[in-house]
Amino acid sequence: MVWKVTAGGEKWVLKQALGKLDVAEDWFADVGRIEREQQAMRFLEPMMPDGSVPRVVHSDAINHVFMMTCAPEEATSWKKRLMEGEFQPDVARNAGLLLRAMHENSRRLAGQAQQEAFGDMTYFRELRIDPFHRHLIGKYQELGPELEALIGDLEENRNCLVHGDFSPKNMLVDDNQRVILLDYEVAHWGNPVFDLAFLLAHLLLKGWVLGKQADALRLMERFLEAYDFNQETDARLIGHTGALLLSRIDGKSTVGYVKEQKLKELVRRTAMDWIRHPADEAVANLREAMKG
Predict the structure, then answer these.
(1) In whole angstroms, what is the distance from residue 284 CA to residue 245 CA?
(2) Contact present, 242 and 273 (Cβ < 8 Å)
(3) Which of 157, 160, 155, 147 is nearest to 124 (CA)?
(4) CB proximity list for 185: less than 8 A, separation 6 or greater
(5) 282-289 and 213-227 are packed helices; what angle lies between their axes, rounded to 10 degrees?
């Protein structure tokens, strides 16, 4: 639950964790994840571009509530802009720069104690691995070995702080196209490829649904370029993107805006092919998928 609080001309945001998530299927998660969110925000805020991470100003651990600074009034959701047809390359570029700063700075500045503090993947498993990958294994047993390999890649190759929910709905964009990143509940010391794949899956779906494939491809290319994506170091990006795409159609956290059965089948075919060939060249596959 999230509330905006206004008092004496000042604005803050209150957030409280819920045990049951607001999705169609039963999906429960430990409310203690809100402590991880604050931990991540406090760690990241000093090392990130000014204003890009809200500042925690008050915490109530008993009631699983905290208060943070509020984004500028003019800031709007990147998801809202995209769904209204505004595919702005500068926003994608700034998202890439922000994610790069998060990954590189955390890798460089986190000591052993901080790495261990973020090393517990409980919330990531509860909110990502289980409802996404393992839920798919139950539906697509033929993809079990490939999905297990992707899970292993996420759990074993860990070298920076990963956001875990790097999607347009969690990014506010101000009048200068600056990105403000929200929602750090599943942040963990993990594999950075997950954040890349998470955003790519969302941009792919919006490109297909809105018939703006060329615009979506431009955003993805700008995002990856700004991030300084390297196919060699993030070799399984296309496989992870495929798993997250399929999860958005057949996992526990589906996207409501993909309604046409024909499009769902296209997404399934594309996703399953990428899962089966996880190390294929990412940009080439994205370009092929976004052909009109």
Answers:
(1) 17
(2) yes
(3) 155
(4) 17, 33, 34, 36, 37, 123, 127, 164, 165
(5) 160
**The pair of three-digit structure tokens given for residue 230, joined into one six-digit string:** 């390297």
Q: Widest CA span of the chain, in angstroms?
A: 59
Token code pair at residue 21? 């998530």
The residue type at 80: K
* All structural domains of the chain with their residue ranges: 75-289
CA 6, CA 126: separation in Å to the nearest integer? 34
Please give the class, per CATH, of domain 75-289: alpha beta
Q: With helix as H, strand as E and coil as C, how does 256-282 read?
A: CCCCCHHHHHHHHHHHHHHHHCCCCCH
Please give the single-letter amino acid code of residue 165: D
Total-model pTM? 0.94
For 31-57, write each residue's pLDDT tens digit.
778 999 999 999 999 999 999 999 999
Q: For residue 149, give the amino acid letter.
A: A
| Rounded Cα gap, residues 139 and 247, in angstroms | 11
**213-240 confidence digits (pLDDT tens):** 999 999 999 999 999 999 998 999 999 9
Q: Which residues of 124-157 are buried (b: 16+ CB within 10 A; e: fewer)?
A: bbbbbbbbbbbbbbeebeebeebbeebbebbeee
